[in-house]
Each structure stands twice: as C-alpha cells, then as structure tokens.
Design goal:
Blueprint lengths: L6 H6 L1 E3 L2 E5 L10 E4 L3 E2 L6 E11 L3 E8 L10 E8 L2 E9 L10 E8 L5 E2 L16 E3 L10 E4 L11 E5 L15 E5 L5 E3 L19 E5 L4 E12 L2 E11 L9 E2 L9 E4 L2 E4 L2 E14 L6 H6 L10 E10 L35 E2 L4 E8 L7 E8 L4 E5 L4 E5 L2 E3 L3 E20 L19 E6 L16 E18 L1
Parallel strand pairs: 3-29
Antiparallel strand pairs: 1-2, 2-5, 4-32, 5-27, 5-28, 6-26, 7-8, 8-9, 9-10, 9-11, 12-13, 13-14, 14-15, 16-17, 17-18, 18-19, 20-22, 21-22, 22-23, 24-25, 25-26, 27-32, 28-32, 30-31, 30-32
Amino acid sequence: MASLITPALKAKIWTVSGYLLYSLAPLPGFAEPVELGSDRQLFVDAALIDELHHAALVPGRPTEAGMALQLDQPWEGGYAGYFTVLHDGSRFQLYYRGKAHAGGDGNDEEVTCYAESSDGMHWIRPDLGLHTVFGTKKNNVILAGIAPYSHNFSPFLDSRPGVPAVERYKAVAGIQVKPPADPSGGGLVGFVSADGIHWRKIRDQPVITSSDKSAFDSQNVVFWSEREKVYVCYARTWKAVAGKRYRWISRATSRDFLEWTPLVEMDYGDTPPEHLYTNQTSPYFRAPNFYIALGARFVPNRHVLSPEHVQSLKLGAARQINECSDAILMTSRGGQHYDRTFLESFLRPGLGLENWVSRTNYPALNVVQTGATEMSWYVQRHYAQPSHALVRYTLRLDGFASVRAPFGGGTLTTQPFRFRGSHLEINYSTSSAGGLQIEVQDEHGAALPGYAVADCKEIVGDEIMRVVQWKAGPDVAALAGRTVRLKFFLKDADLYSFRFTE
C-alpha cells in the first residue's frame, strides 16, 4: 500500500491555529494509488487529501448529554478515575478505580469498580457481593486487595479471531516501580476473564516492562488491531525535550499478549511537546483502520484557581489547584505516529471553577454507539470534589472531524486511489441553502464520462448514510479497481466520511 502522507503533501500543508487549510494546486503525480478497498474513510487527518480550496478540516463539536454516573458511593468518591467503557452486544460495561477505605487521597488500597447499562445512558451498580469494602459486601467492586493493579486496571474485549471464550476479556494493570508487598516486580501484569466480572492473572510476572522507572503511572491501554494483526499497547512513559521532561506515550506490540516488543516512543510530528496524561487510543468501531485517541492534556503550573477555592470547592488537597487539563483529539493509522491535526482542545474545561481543578476533564477509554445516528464518550468532571461525576457527551457517527466549506463554496480533491464496491456512500450535513456534489475523475484530474459534477444530483440534507446519484444512477461498479479521484463540491456543508459499498 502506498504511503498516505508523502513529503510533497506535507510541504503543501498550511497549519493555522491547528486547522489544516488549503488553497493550492494539486500535486503532480503519485508513485502508486492508495488501495481503499471498501473501508470507510474519515476526515480526521489530511492523509487522503490532495487539495482543499476554500475549505478546511475542522474538529467535531461534542454535545453534553447529562450525567452518566454520580460517583457518590463511599468506595468511589472524588478520586475515582481511569474509566473504561466497553460495549458487548446489548450490554455496556464501565470499569473504574475506587478506594477500599475512608481517609487519605484515594491512592492507597484501591479497588476496581464496575457498572452496567443497557443503553450507554443510564447506568446501574450491580450488588456483586464479591468483596467487603467499607464494611459491606453490597457493592459493585470486582477487584480488591491486589495493589497496585486496581490503580489503573484497563480492560478490553479481545476481538482476535479464535480467542478462547475464557479469555474473551483481557486487561493490563500495574506500575513500573516495584511495590514492597508485591514479589512479581514492576510493570504491566496481564489479566483475563470470561465475563468481565471475575478476573484472574495470567501470571505473576509482568507481560510488559520498561527500563524507565516512571513508566506506566497512568491508564495504559491495549487492544487487538485488525489492521496490524497484533495486540497493541499504548503506555505512559516520559521523554526529555529541550531540557524538560514531558509525560509521553510509547507503544509496544505482541502476537500472543504474553511476549511484547520493547516500548518505542510515539512521534507527534512537528507539534509542540505537551504533557499527555492519558491517551485513550482505540480502533474506531465503524472504521477500525483509524485509531482514535481522545486523551487528557495536562498543563502543570498553570494556576486558574486561588488557595481560597480549595475550601469553597471542598477539595481534598491544595495541590489540586496547581494544574489544569482538558481533552484533546489525536489519531493514528498504526505504527509509531500520532497525527495531531487539531492542537486546540476537543473539549474545553468550560464554565465553572469546578472544571479547572487538576486532573479533571479526563476522558474515559472508548467511544461507543448509543443510537442510530450518535455515539457517546464519557468525561470525568469535578475531580477531587464531592460533586465528582462521569458525564456523557455525544457526537454524530463519524463526527470527530469534517471537511467544511462556507456559503461561498469550496472543494476537496482526493489523492488517486482504487476501491471495491458498486455505490458511493457519504456522511454529510448541509444548511437549507447549501449543498454537495461529487465528481469522479481519472488519476490526472479529468472528469469521467457520466460522473462529472454536472451529472451529479445535488445533495441537500443531513444524513449518516446517503448513496450518491448521478444522472445514470448510483452504480460505480464499472470503475472498481481503476485508479480514480473524487472531487467534492461543497457549499455551506460538512463532509464527515465516505466509503464504497455493495
């Protein structure tokens, strides 16, 4: 497969406030076309774009959809954290860190908590009766007494073909520094489960280790990559840049979940170094070739709150006013590179001093579908406060980002590619006065007979799935396997994704 980002393409990119803007001529020629097959293509990066004219890549707009879970149980509290949401058929599952007893700052004798939902909106805590915490077994605790693993227990549903049913759920947890009470040493230990509630260690020894004694002190995430045919781990490390140490993300891979390659630092391209506390990287469920990372950006020594706010907000510790954080969007197509097309916050802290406390606004791991046209992701708000809660936000399907053109109109031209399928399907939105048309071109940019812009029926509306029609109909099967381009003509419109399908 041809590289999606060529040096010449990089040279064309103008970065203005983190958004990629183009008003330039197409690049002359490519070594070979990109093989798209029938995979859905998102506009979360510029990899497939040859030219944008009077159009721009813009990030999506999350919408707050209400509280998912008030963290008001004694074993939860203000310091619950490192949330993971899984979607298994008709059941949504939520995992997060809690505490085993009163007092302290929540970092000692931690437990792992569990909640369920049938719709991803309304959550319940099942009384599991597995562990006694705060003097009762009537709780939703699934792991206790296994420090330090409850600190950052991070599960996933293993989608690898042929995985045994008793290991359908997997998880990693642990920290690099060897705890005195744990003879296994430091690193990430592997866990397996058949139901996501009853867990066991694969072995006492860690499956992933690092020479960096500060590694793994965050939520470290693992998934099976259908794109790369390996397990992938994105873990917290540290990196020195210009004499300063930054919280960084590194990656390791494994074919069997037991033996892993050494961690390698991720590359963020030509972007300023920032502290990235969590990465929350996972394959997007509608386009698993794209890894979506809705991570937490951490800004140390940035004071928004005053010492007086510690008392007014009932904060557990004064240190909570010394930093602030927000949510950012990164993407990857595999390998050691993150694309940071959008440097701005994907979700700002927002109104209210409660949201400017250190370590609040951290997103949960995974985005899940919660409706015919929407997906949900979850963000913890009011960290270290009595009002601490997990809040749900929604986006339209594929709505992480889009190509947008104003009322005056703009165009997007793709790189040359080959596809499989017989129909072109798009996810789009226009105003009542706007519209969208598509021209299919040959590799040199000439319109193909019957597929010119003049042959395309104007598309007006707002749909997740719309099959494009030309005068002769929607069938493009005759073009499958040929090298073509698409040119989108947009007026007051957004284009979120496209794919070729049968």
